[in-house]
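Researcher: I'm comparing several assemblies side by side, and this is the next one on my list. It has 694 residues spread over two chains. Same procedure as the others: predict the full complex and return the structure.
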Amino acid sequence: MTRTDHEAVLDVQDLSVEYGSGRNAVRAVEGVSLSLRRGEVLGIAGESGSGKSTLAFAMNRLLRPPGLITGGTVRYRSRSGQEADILDMTDEELRAFRWSELAMVFQSAMNSLNPVLSIRGQVVDTLRAHGSRKPRKEEQARTVELLRLVGISADRASAFPHELSGGMRQRATIAIALALEPEIIIMDEPTTALDVVMQRQILSVMMGLRERLGFSVIFITHDLSLLLEMADRIAVMYAGRVVELARASALYRHPRHPYSYALLHSFPMIHGPRIELTGIRGWPPDLRATPSGCAFHPRCLHAMQECHELLPRLGVPSGESGHEVACLLNEGAGLGPVPQELAGR
Amino acid sequence: MAQPGTTAAGPADPAGSNDRDRLPVLEAVDLTKYYKTGAARARPTVVRAVDGVSLALYSGEITALVGESGSGKSTIARVLAQLERATAGKVVLDGRPVRRGRPRWYRRYARRVQMIFQDPFSSLNPTHRVNYVLGRPLRIHGYARSRRQTEEGVLRLLEQVELTPASQYAGKFPHELSGGQRQRVAVARALAARPEVILADEPVSMLDVSIRLSVLNLLRRLVTGSGAALLYITHDIASARYFAKTTLVMYAGRLAEGGDSEAVTQEPAHPYTRLLISAAPDPGRADGTSPDADSGEPPSLARPPRGCRFHPRCPHAMAVCKEQHPPRADLNTTHWVHCWLYLDHNGQP
C-alpha cells in the first residue's frame, strides 16, 4: 500500500510448468504472466491443485523432477536496473542470486530448519554460505539483530528448533530469509500450520518489516480472506491459470470472475450480517483431465455454451483499469455483459 | 441474576440453553484429563490437557468448541468418544454415567456416539473400498443382516451425503476420491451407526475453502434431519458463528466463555475471546486496527499459570487473577464467562 512504484522487480511472462512428460504430462501451470512491483505485496490465491505453489517454486528454479518448466521467462530487475532471466541463469549465478535477491519462506518451518543446529547457528550459516567475511563478533551482532527484528529475544537464540513453538520456528525462518536483505520474499502458505493469534502476530511482524526494509512479497495462500486484508494486488488461480488479477479492494468489492465471486462467498465472516453460504458446487479440477474450454465451467453458475469450448484469455474489462479477468462474461475478455450478481457487491 | 458458578443451572446446563426442561443427550461433568509424559519412574511430567470442563450436547443442536491447538479441545472429543479414559469427572449419556468394562460396552457406546476425524486422508483405510468402509458398521450394529441389505444401506448412506450416483462411488478406494469426497465418506461412516451424538473434530480444516461450506451445510442438514447432537470442534470462530447454536471457547484446558454463538462472537466478554476474534481474518477491517504483534503465546500445560490461565497474556489482569481460577459469571441467561472482570472478590457477579 505504501511506496509502491510501478516498476516491476519481477516480471513473469507466459510461464508453463508440467509434471512428467509426453502423453501423461500434467500441466500444473499454464501461460501465467504476472509482475511484482517494487515494494508491493502480491497475493496468489488458489485451492490445492491450482498451481500456486508450483508457480512459486518455478520462479525460484526450485522445481524438482518430474516438474519441468516448459516455457516462459522470469525476469528480475535489481535496484541498480540490471535485468536477468532467472530461467537462463547458470548454477553459479543462481547460487549468487538466491537468498541475496530472492528468499523464500515455506509452509512447514520444522522441515525447513536444521534440527541439529541452533537458531543462531542457522542464521550464521546463511550469512557465511553467501560469502560473509565479517569478524565473528559482527556476525553475532547481526544474528541477534535479525532475530530481534522478528521478535525472538537474544536469550532464545541458542535454542534448537524442537525447543521452539511452531510460531517461533516460523519467525526464525523469516529471520533467515531476511538475513541477506533480499529484494523479494516469496511466502508459500507461511502461516497455514499456525493458530490464528500466532498467524496474526507473524503477519504484523512481517508487514512492519516490509514498511521498514522495503522488500516486495509474493504471498501464496488458499485463504483469500487473509489476502484481502494484507495484499496490495491479488491473483486468483484456478487449474493452473490466473483467472483474475486485481487490487485487493477491487476484488473484494467487485469480483469479476464467477470463481472469485464464489470464493468470496465461501467463508463465513466474523462480523457483518449472518448470511446463508453455499460454498462452490462440484469438486476442484483434476489436472489429469482438465475440463475443456474454461476449466471452471462445470462448477460455474453462469456457464454458457461457449464456455465449454472457448478458452477465455486474461483481459481488461471495459471501464476498468488494472483489473484483469479471464471470463467470457466480461466485455473485453470475451462476449457478454457482466451478470447482475457480479456487477456489484 | 442467577448465582455464579455451577450452582445456578448446574453442570447439566453449562451452555446456558434457554429451555431448561430439555435434557442433554451427552454431558461432560467436570471432565479432567492429565497425561503423564517424560521419564515415568523418575519424575513424570503431568500435562493438564483438560481441567474441569463441563458441557452438554442437546439433540438436534450444534455446539461449537473453539480453541487454539493445544487448548484441549480434541482431548475432550476423544474422552467423550471413550477413546481415552478421563482422569476425573464423568461422561453422562442420556442421564446415565458411562461405565466402562461391561461386555461389549464400547460397541454399544459407539453405536450411540460417533466421531468424525480431522484428516480424511488418514481416517480411511487405504486398502478398503467405500462399500466395505460403510458396510461394516451397518453389519456390526445390526442394521444389515444380508448382503442385499448391506448394499442397499451403503447406497442410501452415499445418497445421504450427496455422493451421487451412489453406485459409482461404492466401488472406489479412498485414493480415487478428492479430500471433500473422502470426508463425506467419513461422515457417512459415522451416520451408518445412526448415532445420537456426533463428535466432529475439525471436520473441514483439511479441505479446500470452496468445499468447506458444502460439507458444513451437509452436516447441519443431517443433524436437523436425524435429531442427533453435534459437537463441532474448530479453531475457526467465524465458522462457529455461522454453524453452531452455542459456542464454547476453550483456553489452555479450561472453558473461558460460552453461550449463544451470536452473543459470544459479537459481544465477546472474555479477553481471550476478544483476542481470538481480533486475530481472525476480516476483509472489512479498516487499516490500522490490526491487533498487537506481541500478544504472547499459550502456556505450557505441564506448568500452567496459577489462577486464571490467561492472566500472563491478559491486558486487564488483576491481583486476584494470579491467585484464583475465576468461577462462572452469568452475563444473562444465555451467555457466561469465567473472568474476574465480571465478579467481585468473593466470586459474586
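Model: For your comparison table: Confidence is low (pLDDT under 50) at residues 1-18 of chain B.
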